[in-house]
Amino acid sequence: MRVPVAILAMTVVAGNYFTPQTAMAVTIATLDTGLDTAAAGLQGRVDPGADFIDGQLPAEDINGHGTTVGKIIADLDRTTRVMPVRVGDVSASTIKNSVLVQGINFAANSTARIMNLSLGSTSNTLAPGVTTALKNAAAAGKFIALAAGNQGRANPTYVGTASPQLGGSAITVGALDRNGNIASYSNRAGFTKNYYVLAPGFTNFNSRLGTSFATPRVSSTAAKIIAQNPRLSAQQVAEIILTTTDDMGAAGIDNIYGRGRLNTARALSAIGDVEIPDDSDDSSSSAGIVVGAVVVGAAIAGAIYYKNRKIKQTLVLDQYERPYVVDLGDTIDVRDDSIGLDGLMQSLKRRTEYSDLAVTDGLTLGVWYGEDELQRFERKTTNQLDNYEYDWSLSLQQGDKTGAYYALNMNLDPRQFFGAADEVSPYAVFDRRSLTAPYAGFAATGNMALTGYRTAKGNDIRLGLVSMDDENDLNVSSRSMLFEGSTRPHPRVKLGVQVSALSEQGSLFGGSSSGAMSVNHSETIATGLLAGVKLSRRLSLQMLYSQGYTWVDEGDKSLLSNFKGLRSDSYAIGLQSKSLLSAGDSIGVSVSRPLHVNSGNLSMTVPGSINVYTGDVSFDSETIDLSGVQRQTDVELGYHLPLGKETGFAGYMRYRHDPTGVLTSNGRYGMMMSVTSRF
Fold first, then answer.
1. 58: cis peptide before it, omega within 30°?
2. Is the pLDDT of residue 583 over 50?
3. d(Cα 167, Cα 139) in Å, to the nearest integer?
4. Which residues make beta-bridge pairs with 29?
5. Spatial CA neighbour of 559 closest among 275, 330, 335
6. Which candidate, 197, 294, 230, 298, places its Cα nearest to that of 555?
7. Cα–Cα distance between 339 and 638 in angstroms, integer?
8. Structural contact between residues 593 and 559, judged by C-beta atoms closer than 8 angstroms
9. Residue 67 has pLDDT above 90, yes or no
10. 80: helix, coil or strand?
11. 292 vs 278, residue with greater confidence
């Protein structure tokens, strides 16, 4: 659906969100002593009202009480308008019930959305006619702010008593002093506690004090809320104000402070799940697209960020359908499968133990488990054997050096069984994914059934069925089939080919299964060429190039659609040596260009504006060409030197060239050195 672009302008505020300012102006009817229309800040801000004292218009104020109320409203927001309804003469506390009823009925039938009753009396109750008039006004959709009164009593007086009877459309307002405490003169919440809030009862331009001057602060907040979404009911406006207060006194709602202190900033901020409007024409589906926890696979992230800047100002709605603008760049994480310095440090801090058991000839059961070094030290020194979690993996293998072989692996990274994994020391090139099987999947671990056949001349074929899940972190899962065949035309040379079939459930290249960048599922067919060369007894070279073609079933609620012709590739080269500088050391350097979508296109539809009166949203759709986006390049250097049986030195350096800037959080340069010792 497309509607005219209208009504919404954006102003930046602190945090990730923008707050909308609309061209509409909300009118507050002030039932008071009239208004001095010439007062500073009120010129051009006054709507025609009524005078039920002497019938003169404009409803001039001879007391100043109503003018003070109007100036507070004008000072709090430059767009809100004031409609004076004069029901008091020389005092706002000496009002005839019959006159007040006339004023309420007039305001109830006016264009004003809000009624402000900064009226007082020593009476603890309202005349039945006044109560009936207020109920009719609430039924007409008016939000009503009522002064609690200034007698310092345990319960509100006069109009302040009415809020519980008005169907959730009214709030009784008490006063705070300049120190932020409840004012000594302010009536407490009492029986109105569920509908009672506190606001400053003083002004910055005169010396007047009272709940009368706290009440327009609530009215002004209500006007700002309505300006965000004029379709809100009075009950919803009151609900927003009452549920965003700052608690005071005893925890929860109490008889003194009621709901607590008015917090206008919280009331105007997004509440609940923030969603992107859905551009579907299906009116039966009202749910939008959830913004939070959105993850995009690194392979495609560069194109989305680099090619479409509209995501920096994407329209979103909160649970009250109030519009905001969010920079999706701040809410979307890019899934980067390459190891970072934090991950490397964690791996070096862990001790991995391995045990194997020969079940029968050729059948071996292998178990790996690991724990943090500090955890291990605490366990040994305290002699506590329980309440410790271990990383564990299991492998059941059948076969000898030649002939058929089989393996069943649990909680292992399947990539370590393919590509150059067998040739590369984990200390030489820390990040080996681009040299193994880039299209195996995008979770850290998985389960695999493997079968293969190896000849005496070193020819090898293997087939693996892989299931990878990342339910704890990103809820990403995939199933894949990997075939690899290799031959050794020379004792120092290994050549091979890979074929992969990858099926991702609810994701694309490791992106999350829900959110603004989601897909239903994707299918990828990939081929790869690998080569390994032993340059000398200590030095070897490994290379892998992979290329994939992907078909995408777009998500039901996603900004992305119409995927066509997605082609991706990945390639890496690694050089490593053993015992080059010192006996037992490992050194390696690798250059890789991780998985990257470099051709194809997709459509991205982003909501751009909203008509706040109707709720109709205008959408901007753009076709994104995935070609021509510069890709990431990683250069890594690793070194490990054993210093003893349980001690070693490790050094690692990385340079990351990320021209699109989507992975800068991991740093462009990184270096780490560590000395590890086993307790």
1. yes
2. yes
3. 8
4. 83, 115
5. 275
6. 294
7. 13
8. no
9. yes
10. coil
11. 278
Collapsed DSSP state (helix, strand, coil) of residue 491: coil
Statement: residue 290 has pLDDT above 80: no
Instruction: Tell me the average pLDDT across 237-254.
Output: 96
Domains in the chain, please, with CATH? 24-268 (3.40.50.200), 335-677 (2.40.160.10)
pLDDT confidence tier of residue 242, bands split at 50, 70 and 90: very high
Q: Return the percentage of the chain with pLDDT > 70, whole number.
A: 80
Token match 């609900």: residue?
A: 239
Q: How far apart are CA 519 and CA 511, in angstroms?
A: 9
Sort residue 44 into left (φ over 0), alpha (ψ -120 to 50) or beta: left
3-class DSSP state for residue 536? coil
Residue among 143, 140, 7 nearest 79 (CA): 7
Tell me the C-alpha to C-alpha distance, in Å, between residue 199 and each of 27, 176, 211.
20, 6, 8
Q: Minimum mean pLDDT among 22-26, 205-209, 249-253: which range? A: 22-26
Residue 651: predicted pLDDT: 83
Which DSSP state fits 608? E
- Give the up-direction half-sphere exposure of residue 223: CA atoms within 13 A in the CB hemisphere: 28
- Find the angle CA(603)-CA(605)-CA(607) to the nearest 5 degrees: 170
Confidence of residue 14 (pLDDT cuts 50, 70, 90): very low
Kindly report the pTM of this predicted structure.
0.73
Hey, which residues does 46 pair with through a beta bridge? 82
Sole residue written with tokens 């979404």: 229
CB within 8 Å of 280: residues ≥ 6 apart: 557
Buried b (16+ CB within 10 A) or exposed e, 549-588: ebebebbebbbbeebeebebbbbbbbbbbbeeeeeebbbb
Residue 338 has pLDDT above 50, yes or no: yes
CA dist 329 and 517 (Å) reads: 12
pLDDT band at 19 (very low <50, low <70, confident <90, very high): very low
Rounded to whole angstroms, the Cα distance separating 60 from 65 reads 11
Q: What is d(CA 359, CA 649) in angstroms, rounded to the nearest whole number?
A: 37
Secondary structure class of 306 (helix, strand, coil): helix
Evaluated on CA atoms 212, 214, 215, 219, the torsion sign reads positive
CA distance 329 to 259: 36
